[in-house]
Amino acid sequence: MAAGSRCLLLLLLLPWLVVASHSPPGCKIRITSKGLDLVKQEGLRFVEQELQNITVSDLHGKEGQFHYNISQVKVVDLQLAFSDLYFQPQQHLVFNINNASISLRFRRQLLYWFFYDIGSINASADGVHIRTVLQLAKDEAGRLKISNITCNASIARMHAGFSGTLRKIYEFLSTFIVTGMRFLLSQQICPSLEHASLVLLNSVLDTVPVRNYVDEHIGIDYSLLRDPSVSTDTLDLDFKGMFFPRARENQELENHAVEPVIKETERMVYVAFSEYFFDSAMHAYFQAGVLAIELQGEKVPKDLEVLLRATFFGTIFMLSPAVDAPLRLVLQVSAPPRCIIKPSGTSVSVSAFLNISLVAPGRPPVQLSSMAMETKLSAKVFLQGKALRVQLDLRRFRIYSKQSALESLALFSLQAPLKTLLQLTIMPIINERTKKGVQIPLPEGMDFTKEVVTNHAGFLTVGADLHFSKGLREVIEKYRPAPTAPAYPSSRPAEPSMDPRQL
Q: For 1-27, what is each residue's pLDDT tens digit?
């Protein structure tokens, strides 16, 4: 009975345990079938380049008194007219090539008694079928990787054209030569594609930013929270999307925001950002201690200085030695700002305090007032290239005294000039700091076009199309390790044997 009660309790708690273990993403990316079609076009060019570099072993043998040797096999042409790249649940991409043809040229050598013949042969492999299944997964660093590949390749037919003095003899041996070449070629296709996927394409995925610095104060963590989720039409990636102060890189901020939900499939790619994404950025800046601005002396606008001296005339008059001392304004955020995303727009709530002091040379500062400020900023979020940027504008502003309601009433006359100070002096400084933006986790060479930002309750999405500013080969070659010189001189490769019997 007790065991049954424990089982019932476990079943009741199981849904809550699953929810607790599911960390919501701060950033989510969806690639649709339309985006995959673009990837297919670039991927097909890459596959053609890889298959053209196939290395086929030499073929040699003996039939009676005939000794033959086939060497220096080169792919001279590829026709990959029928290909398809599509999603396969739950973690796979499938790339099929059907009814392709591969044209080859190789060197022939034949010895029959005392007759020796040498030349080249053109061959064609027809009905080439290649099926590759790529498994996508999250590695230990939280980076997207091709973790496994399954490949099958077959060649339906192969033809060879012979010429020269012993053409009839080659036609007699064509069955052995063509069968051997078809076997050798089919055996090299999958190893070539496996290396291209697990090594070369993974080197392109290595260019996706996972954990890097945004500026001298904060960094961003774009590590994957889990393996990608693949449906028949989409591939979804859940990223942590958390900023951190560089002085405390291991600091974690719990995510209690609404999880982004992407339902659209019309564009090539969608990127969603929750309120947590922006909150963590402001929290990181707050922890870094950079959400403060000081204005002193000539940096204080003249009109505002005159008004402040008039407002606090009584206090200043009592400080006769410091009457002409410069004013200092220190504006400092008192708590991490909060982002609010609604269908109507995005806003940021900021609480701060403003200290106004007289700073006489050689004397300690004399505080005239310390007032609290509450502001609401409107935020325009947009993409430029692969950088997510935010443009802030002051929407609401209120000041009040931290000491008494009577002083708050006296400060009412400062409301308008201080708001002007924020708009004309402080806001340009803030927007200049956010001008650089933060990079979206896409591989190098892939960029956004025709971006459209849409607000939802608790998150926003950016729908866009993709284009390749660099080819896969260009990115691979850029990051390919430079070959190291051998420790000892290597011997020059030997020339092909002129005597098939020596092979």
A: 445 555 454 455 444 444 445 689 999
